[in-house]
TrEMBL record:
Protein name: Probable Fe-S oxidoreductase
GO MF terms, alphabetically ordered: 4 iron, 4 sulfur cluster binding; metal ion binding; oxidoreductase activity
Originating organism: Desulfotalea psychrophila (strain LSv54 / DSM 12343)
Residue ranges constituting the Cysteine-rich domain according to the UniProt record: 409-490, 525-603
Signal peptide coordinates: none
Biological classification of the source: Bacteria, Pseudomonadati, Thermodesulfobacteriota, Desulfobulbia, Desulfobulbales
Length: 748
């Protein structure tokens, strides 16, 4: 990824944009921090926030009329935050702070002519930035009338501490001409001067520059104190640019009030009455008013995504971390797990006001890692092995319907549904053949694991094979059960006519054996159905036909949550995948019904009662929501047995796939061993391969304490260890583990 691409991605995230109040403030006070501290009663800390931003803070905190209130997002929810009252209270009750330490001297002299509020603020800003400032005129003559005694004098003293020199002289044209000749720049506070001294013409609204080079002037008739101060700051900014010889106009869009891009969702915010205006306020009243501040931020995606919440930042930061991770030439890539933990579900995209898609970003980074050979093998190896198994001779099957030489339709149930509930797949295929006739069958993986892992070449290869097999069957209409397969096949074979099984069922009606009984179930839309309202509608209509009352979770339909399997999260980060599944399960009290096999199995595996829609229309159990989620080994066996059974029962064929020798090894497992195998993704077949090696070599260690035998075998990139004992009928496995280290000196 090029850095320019990163910039484009970062620009989409608005979390770091300022809130509306700060953007509306001419001086951009950090209102959020100020209100937070005021709400805690920390007046001194709150004052440091004001003093950091405001010139002459003691003056402006008392004179500011609060233009930010017009843009406060609380305005329609009880009234805007009384920022002017909060500032004045803070000024009266907080401990005064010293003026900021000026930057090192620049060796430049600036004359400020006119000592009204604009001139005083310009002098403050210039002195703070290292200029030698000479102020001409009587300081704040009018200001003193509207301020408590001593306030203006204290700020004039602070100006002197910043290095400003004061010159109370008569101001005329002769003085102006002399100052222009002596100083590096001159700023004129027009409100403090007679109109006859405005011979330089109207000042530029952006730069405040005049017809005379080096002479800057404020516009006349500005009566707002905070806007006068902003004009003084604008003049200082222009003088800095002028003395540096750089552009006077570039990059000044954010000076003064502007429209922020920050989005804040107030849908669930309660209305709270604003502070009643009065002469004085108690500490409690001020704290209560400050606490009304919503502390505006976006975080829409983070609030609704366990993955984004887990890493404790937001997409702009994640994008930078992932980019830096991808750009590393040598060293450890710390963000690999973060990049591979995105579920690629697209929820963030639908919630983000700027459509920042972590799915698109992370998939781009994953592809780059694969291309550079920097993708950790362990991240997705198990899922890719499972995909290869589903597409291998033991499981894959492509046939016309029994007795048919052509197919009008092709049923594609997907590899996860055949792994989870092969009996329902068999009954679904029978129903389609009974009602549609020439329906072929393709048992295969759609290639989603290859796509999610960033392996584009493998994905293209997988899709090319599916296309070739589909064409050999005569390019029939494809009926798809799995929403992920539906999305993947539509993208991979755009020329094919592809329809969901649920749309077919809407047209045909419910199968004869469907379980029609009144019940209340919560609907779980798979994330792959997020942008398919037709599919969502078909499922809900079918549930209604079954007399099911449907409960919608808070996040549903377009905004549905992932179950924790998407993007291969459960392989890259199992603990986070569990947290995602638990969160989704906690979204409703009712049992879930879903139309994705992995959603169903992930939810059940993590303690939530859930059923697949096939459990309702092709029933086989009295309590489908309580059906256990099959383990990894069982999933493989289910696929293989489904193919074997279909070949024998429908096509009267024998499965010609070679029987592996290791599969003949009889092995049993303790409950603890089964738990460990699921947790560590170790298959029964992996154990059988180790034990076959023991049978052939006769080599094994003996555990000195338990008497159990220990052996290892490295069939591919992983070394598997087994702690076992021999039984008359086979082997009993007590423990198992694996690693990627190669043990030299042979196998034990």
């Amino acid at each position: 990824m090029e850095q320019s691409e990163l910039r484009e991605w970062e620009a989409k995230c608005v979390q770091e944009e300022v809130p509306r109040c700060t953007a509306a403030c001419p001086l951009h006070v950090d209102v959020r921090s100020f209100c937070s501290l005021m709400g805690q009663g920390r007046w001194d800390k709150a004052w440091t926030v004001l003093a950091k931003t405001l010139p002459l803070p003691g003056v402006l905190a008392r004179l500011c009329h609060g233009p930010c209130k017009n843009d406060c997002i609380r305005q329609g929810l009880g009234g805007s935050i009384a920022m002017d009252s909060l500032e004045e209270f803070c000024a009266e009750n907080a401990r005064a702070v010293d003026p900021p330490r000026p930057l090192p001297a620049r060796g430049k002299v600036v004359a400020v002519v006119g000592a009204g509020l604009t001139g005083l603020c310009a002098a403050w800003e210039l002195a703070r930035r290292g200029f030698a400032v000479r102020l001409y005129g009587e300081p704040g003559k009018v200001l003193a009338l509207s301020l408590p005694e001593g306030v203006l004098a204290a700020e004039i003293k602070n100006l002197a501490r910043l290095g400003v020199s004061f010159h109370d002289v008569s101001i005329d044209q002769v003085l102006l001409d002399a100052l222009l000749a002596e100083a590096d720049a001159v700023f004129v506070d027009s409100d403090s001067l007679p109109s006859e001294l405005s011979s330089w013409g109207e000042a530029d609204s952006l730069t405040l520059g005049t017809l005379r080079p080096g002479l800057f002037a404020s516009p006349c008739a500005e009566d707002s104190a905070i806007f006068q101060a902003a004009t003084g700051r604008r003049a200082a900014n222009s003088i800095v640019r002028f003395t540096q010889g750089v552009s006077m106009v570039a990059g000044r869009e954010l000076e003064g009030p502007y429209q922020t891009r920050l989005y804040t969702n107030v849908e669930d915010v309660e209305s709270v009455p604003a502070l009643i205006v009065q002469a004085s306020y108690s500490d409690e009243e001020i704290r209560a008013e400050a606490k009304r501040c919503l502390q505006c931020e976006c975080m829409e995606c983070v609030k609704n995504c366990e993955y984004l919440k887990h890493y404790k930042y937001y997409p702009k930061v994640y994008a930078r971390q992932a980019y830096n991770n991808d750009a590393i030439v040598m060293g450890t890539r710390q963000a690999n797990t973060m990049v591979n933990s995105c579920m690629l579900c697209g929820l963030c995209d639908t919630l983000c006001p700027e459509e920042f898609s972590m799915a698109d970003f992370c998939l781009t980074i994953r592809r780059g890692m694969v291309e550079k050979n920097k993708m950790p093998p362990a991240a997705h190896e198990f899922a890719l092995r499972d995909m290869a198994f589903a597409n291998g001779k033991k499981c894959a099957l492509v046939r016309h319907a029994p007795g048919m030489v052509s197919s009008e339709y092709l049923f594609f149930p997907g590899c996860q549904l055949t792994a989870s509930n092969p009996g329902a797949v068999e009954r679904a295929y029978q129903d389609l053949r009974d009602r549609l006739g020439s329906v072929g069958l393709m048992l295969s993986c759609c290639g989603a694991p290859a796509e999610w892992s960033g392996r584009k070449a493998l994905m293209d290869e997988s899709m090319a094979l599916i296309r070739e097999q589909w064409q050999e069957l005569g390019s029939p209409q494809i009926i798809v059960s799995c929403p992920t397969c539906l999305t993947t096949l539509r993208a991979g074979i755009p020329e094919a006519e592809i329809i969901s099984h649920w749309t077919i069922l809407r047209a045909l009606g419910l199968p004869a054996g469907a379980r029609v009984e009144a019940a209340t179930l919560a609907i779980n839309d798979p994330c792959s159905a997020r942008h398919d309202p037709l599919l969502q509608g078909d499922v809900r209509a079918l549930l209604q036909d079954l007399s099911i009352e449907v409960v919608e979770p808070r996040l549903t339909g377009k905004h549905t949550e992932c179950c924790g399997y998407g993007g291969l999260l459960s392989d890259a980060n199992p603990d986070l995948a569990k947290a995602v599944a638990v969160r989704r399960g906690a979204a409703v009290e009712e049992d879930f019904v879903t139309y994705c096999a992995m959603c169903r199995d992930m939810l059940v595996k993590n303690g939530k009662r859930a059923m697949h829609f096939y459990d309702l229309i092709f029933p086989s159990e009295s309590d489908p929501a309580g059906r256990p989620s099959p383990g990894f080994s069982a999933r493989r066996e289910n696929r293989a047995h489904l193919k074997e059974g279909l070949l024998q029962d429908l096509w009267a064929e024998e499965d010609t796939s070679r029987v592996e020798r290791f599969s003949q090894v009889q092995v049993f497992f303790t409950e603890e061993a089964e738990r460990i195998m699921e947790e560590r993704r170790i298959l029964k077949s992996d154990m059988q391969k180790v034990l076959l090696q023991v049978e052939e070599s006769g080599k094994a260690f003996v555990h000195s304490e338990t008497g159990h035998l220990l052996a290892s075998y490295r069939p591919t990139l992983v070394t598997y260890w087994v702690e076992f004992e021999r039984l008359a009928e086979g082997y009993l496995v007590h423990n198992t583990w694996s690693h990627r280290m190669r043990i030299r000196g042979g196998q034990a």
